[in-house]
Amino acid sequence: MLMPRFGATICTSMRQCAAMRNMPSMARAATPLTSALLSKRWNSTEELASPDAADVMRLDRLRNIGISAHIDSGKTTVTERILYYTGRIKEIHEVRGRDNVGATMDWMELEREKGITIQSAATYAQWGETNLNIIDTPGHVDFTIEVERALRVLDGAVLVLCSVSGVQSQTITVDRQMRRYDVPRISFINKMDRAGANPKRIIEQIRTKLKMPAAALQVPIGAEDSFEGVVDILSNQAIYNRGARGEDIVYGKVPEHLVEAVSEAREELVAMLAEVDDEIGEMFIEDTEPTVDELHAAVRRATIARKFTPVLMGSAIKDKGIQALLDAVVRYMPKSTEVQNTMLDIKNYEKEVAVVPYSNQPFVGLAFKLEEGKYGQLTYIRVYQGRLEKGQFAYHVKSGKKVKIARLARMHSNSMEDIDSVGAGEICALFGIDCASGDTFTDGSTQYSMSTMFVPDPVISLSLTPKEKNTTNFSKALNRFQKEDPTFRVHIDEESNQTIISGMGELHLDIYVERMRREYNVDCVTGKPQVAFRETASVKATFSYTHKKQTGGAGQFGRVEGYIEPIESGEHADKPHEFVNRVMGGTIPAQYISACQKGFMDGMREGFMVGHPIVGVRMVLEDGAAHSVDSSELAFRLATFYAFSEAFKATKPRILEPIMTVEVSAPIEFQGNVLGTINKRKGIIVDTESQEDYCSVVAEVPLNNMFGYSTELRSGTQGKGEFSMEYKRHAPVYPEVQEELIKEHQKKLAEKK
After folding, report:
1. Whole-prediction pTM value?
2. In whole angstroms, how far apart are CA 721 and each of 672, 710, 718?
3. Which of 72, 229, 407, 731 has its CA 20 to 30 A from that of 327?
4. Residue 227: CB partners within 8 Å, gap ≥ 6?
């Protein structure tokens, strides 16, 4: 990987050496050119291979972490305390802007009004000698892309769980995202002061629902209203937060009534570590008691290997347990040099190449988030290797364009600090760079590209019409939002000529409509939400179609034969469609096969029952015929399109609808009402759980039946019920629903005529 940059020097010195092999040693020693070349080669290679000692020390003292959780678990409140205790902010402000200020990381006016995080926000802080890059992410499933792109570039994460609600639907989603990007995590059980707090049950949920070995590193001193602090199991010390905002840490003896509980928790920790760490496993078998340092080292090894999650606890709102969490982040989260990242060598058929995470390597960075700022587009970059300096040129790998880095900044929520350079492992922001989320930048000496992030498909659509016509701000806003958010899509309906916006949920689209009004002064009228239905085949059907058209000169001729069949669920799950060419003997000339595939894709674009895209279909082309004069790409494209259209109608097609995993939480006395509302909406109950005075119901419900559910739930639970939902899969609708949807579609078509 390093050799090409010094290829000319190496080759020259080798030729010089070969020419001198028969010379006397004195003559060889007296040749200054060779000595200089060999010295240059050695020093350059040494310089690249061995990172600078100061750079190694900087990387040892750097942690890139994210704060993730289900909505209302207290992520932003935890982050606010982290910023306060690390000295980044002078005062603590709460979520929802109760003091007319609002939490630092929720800087958008909408976030402070609604009390939820909408956009991920980056900041940096210092704890002791360790520098922390922190990204606070949203907990609502509608903004899941913010979590995706944050976890794509982070080295570790803090998974925040509520001490009462525990593992919820979005917790499971975040867990899946962490596994997708191999991100180790520390679990923090928040809200220990809340009525019904039960950390043991939450740890068991982590083990069973998330399938992640977990054990507590702390035992709570009291709970609910009497929560005072925690006992550190490893150091065997009680830890209390004192002072006006918990800034003073007081260590004491373990309370007598907790001595036995601490001993049991330590035994449980050692037993759990013995299952995931070889060294502790050997000690466990030999009945040897591990030392405190050995336990710390084992927790770190198992955490970084993603075999284990240490569990800490506290109450961010009561200013308890955050400093111990910071200590755990420094002690157990990986350094950038301990994370294995790979990039693709575009020049070498996208062969995987290991990232060398030091600043003396060729620069490679990934743009993972875009924002429209007052100085133009703000691009967040994670530097994976090399150094990025103000004034230098960088190369956009996708377009090949050369761009100048005019300004570099380190972000602190929506404020920034100008900097001159950043090294490997750092997160920074650039101004005025035209790129998309997921693009790679290099210094031009390499053609490496980082793998991009996973982007889920939208599940809901709305028609959008500006109240005032001929406003340029309408298109400006839509273009900006699409660029910032890959899950926000816009298209024009060809039949109605309406603008259709698509996203991850009602709240997702509502936020963008509101942002258009506030940021661009564009009031819009929205239509009824449209569900992203799909069409699919259920049985195999053959086709034999001849497209023949004579026009005066050369006509059009193309014949195609074969069959279409459904792709079974689980088979090619990542492919919504598949085209297979089995034509033998050249009955269809090779140059027309790609046209046949295009015709198939044209047919898949819009279904014949309700006009939604077709998925889960395989087309197998087996035979055909061509004419030496009249055949063309257009003829075969049309032949395949019409063949597919006819065959698809014979496959007993079905309409698929998005099924959502819905989790409802409400006081136990309203459990019957909650179950009734789900049954009324044709939901299937998957799980129910009672937690003292609260109940949790998990169900799978068609998205088309979920509109207006929040109003019904509030009225049925006296405003105390809350729910979240997440896309699960597409499934066939009931036959009577299919008939109704087809009739509605035909009625719309008739009205347009």
Report:
1. 0.74
2. 12, 9, 8
3. 72
4. 192, 193, 197, 220, 221, 315, 318, 320
